[in-house]
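Changelog excerpt

This revision adds worked examples to the README so contributors can see how folded entries look when concatenated. The first example is reproduced verbatim below.
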Amino acid sequence: NFQQDAGRSIAEAGVNHNGDVLIAKELINVAKDSGADYVKFQIFKSELLSTAEAKKAEYQKKDDKNESQKEMLENLEFDFNVFKDLKNYADEIGIGFLASAFDNESLEFLIDLKLDFIKIPSGEINNVPYLERISKERVELILSTGMSTIDEISRALEILLKGKKITKDKIIILHCNTDYPTKIEDVNLRAIEEIKKNFGCRIGYSDHTLGNNVSMGAVCMGAKVIEKHITTNKNLSGPDHKASMDPDEFTKFVKDIRDTEIFLGENRKVPSKSELRNIKHARRYIVALKNIKKGEQFSKENITSKRTSSGISIENWNDVIGKEAEQDFSKDSIIKIPNGGFYED
């Protein structure tokens, strides 16, 4: 399962296998080699998902404008047994396997697979019978929210929680924009704040932009899960390849997520371990501005502060002023007050 306090990465293979099992396994390899936590596919029966008349989305028309959505889906559909094989392969090489289901038969199959999470795709967020079926299972969920409003997310959660088998702490809500690639002006990362405020669930981001920057921003805003499309070759035909990352890009992407989580640190301002080693060498301590005789009072005319790596810190300046020197001090020597309690080694 995802750690509560660390960013996790999902390599979205989706339908970038182009209907070829060998490419699907290569995508699993890419996800594993990149350091991703999970590889994710899309499970559907084209006959149950689309009518023959359904048109493709604009981003899907770039390869074959005359092809219908159903024809496209038929070319990208895998048999359930193939997904069993892919899961076994992911298990063998040691990477988590996830999938999203786009129809009720695929959902039943997905439930039977007993994966760590069931992923609800954005297009099913208002599918009442689909959500009601999930609510009967004691499962953990990832809910993608592309194209949705806060009210639609709220209604989906109400259905999912109604069966009292799923609790909010078992749900991760992904902010998402359903366009490929997503334009920067359509990202609206501040929606993450509204989702957190309204629902109190863990938050993630499903990133369809080009590059790494938006996902890094999402992590900075509290996203614990980042999902990004991967491909073996961005020049392949298919609806999602152009908006996906190739193996080298995705490897850097995962590293950037990890680094972002590390440099964010925690909600408290204290010196780091490395700073603790440097404090005494970077801060000022009180020294003699000129030769001082025993019995003289310390004043701004005869003491100053410099870096010495030990002595009385400059923060005790006002406590030192007016006290008598208990010994002679030569210029630049470290001021000591044996009974003052100020001295730092």
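The second example, added in the same revision:
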Amino acid sequence: MMYALVLGGLILLLFSGDLLVRGSVGLACKLGAPPLIIGLTVVAFGTSAPELMISVNAALAGSPGIAVGNVVGSNIANVLLVLGVPALIYAIACNQVGIRRNTFMMIGATLLFIAFAQSGEFSRGNGIIMVILLAAFLIYSGWRAMTQNDGEEAGLDDVEGIPSKPITTAGFIGAGLIGLPLGAHLLVTGATDIARAFHVSDAVIGLTVVALGTSLPELATTVVAALRKRSDVAIGNVIGSNLFNILAIIGITAIIKPLHVAPHFIEFDLWILLGISLLLVPFAMFHLSLSRLWGVTFVLGYVIYIAAVIVSGPQDTPAAPQANIPAPDVIHAG
């Protein structure tokens, strides 16, 4: 039953998120919003809606390990899998306009993420700072794209099946808004039950099952792009997604409910995330290409990381319950 909850919740999340994105884009187009602004706001928030709902539900359910692990694991999977697998098919060129600037912004967000985590909690103040930085990034990106004419794209090329009829648009948005919280509830419940059954931490579940599941749409998209010999779009999407995951998902979730950070994240996973993020710097700086050899290296690195997480997970010790929140009967990382 718990596996069915995870699978059903994941499918419902991905399907509902897709409907919400398409419906929201249809509404924005009807209202006359520029494609650039839609791309930077509606599409960006919509595609991250499943991860956001998972993290918020997990935090409110007293399973912060799933919330934090979802973001950390997704960002690691984005670099090693979402870039590694398509690189096995067709080399990824890293010469897009603005890639250096956005890469260093992503590294900066990752460093801020790690710095805030050192206290053992993402507070509401931390969340507010993250959301302010996200807003600044979106405003700056929109301003630069519209005034500097540097060729950066933030449009709707990846969004298909945008509804044209008002009733269809409303139906897509309504179904997305209903399906997302329901799917997140099912997935978090199932993931927590799995953690109980196998005596592992909710952090391990967040880093593996949940993170990999929410990265599947991006992986599928980049594989299709690689088969069409357009895999160069992958790196820009990964950099943007990772930056958004940190600032938006952790930021908004922490504002709603401060997040406890288990020691295992601070001692191990966050530094792995930083090291993997830094791997992209030389490619962005010198406009190198991710060859098949790098693809093999990235995918192998992900397999090794997941194996390390699974092996070390069952030995974790319980974390103290958060104040006024009944802790689930699982062993927290650390």
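Reviewer comment on example two: The chain has a mean pLDDT of 83. Residues 80 and 302 are 6 Å apart (CA to CA).
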